[in-house]
Amino acid sequence: MKIAVLGLGIIGSAWAKNLISDGHAVRCWNRTPKDFPNFHASIQEAVEGAEVIFIIVADPPAVQSVLDKIQPSLGRGVLVIQSSTISAKWTRLFAEQVQRTGALFLEAPFTGSKLAAEQRQTVYYLGGEPEVVEKAHPILEPISSAILHIGPIGSASSLKLAMNLNIAGVAQTLCESLSLCRAAGIPDEVYFNALARNASRSGVSDLKEPKLRQHDYTPQFSLKNMDKDLRLALETAADLSVSLEQTGHLKKIYDQGMSAGWADDDFIGLMRLLTNNT
Fold it and tell me: Which of 15, 33, 255, 276 has the most C-beta neighbours closer than 10 Å?
């Protein structure tokens, strides 16, 4: 198929390479020019003639900017797959904008970081009409390990924010737990050996163990993106009259990390707030 991939960050780059390997005619675009296969500096050239358009950018304003630029190229027969992590409120607004052109809109946030994207292990959360979900399946199945249809437009975005809220909370507790043991003189080897046999072991602890052991804060998922997701989760909770007190406290810790200049580091880099920036 003729596919445009708009946004060549950690995930978009991996998906684009896999889609190219699958034999699709892929055109790529990124706000900042990149040395990347089939890259087009003009977003209009990237989407010209595209049957499917992936959007994987940072936040709601970035999605809005992309849609405003490509709207003249949208129309009947085009499928827009919006995979940026945003809130249900923004998702519904963007869906209306796309559908007014006659194009189809599918929200497709996901779970799985860089390695999962590279290894075709992304898990998609889809929101939209069943026929639109079905239309996307042949494209998404080869680059994913699971596709979950959550419900109508907006539902997948809310679930994705809830999942990231959980990941951030588990990761922060992991950092504080490890920090306590390090201060008590317990070696990392002993700590993680015990954690492996404890009920609190998780996918997050397995994924982040090597990075914490090595003080490696290169991004699998950036602090700035998780900070944005916590903000959107809190905004969504306010709209729904739900109190997220722990998440509100965690957002303040993320604000400290952002102020320290760690926006582009992995979110596990918040460990440095607990260990004298080491």
Answer: 15
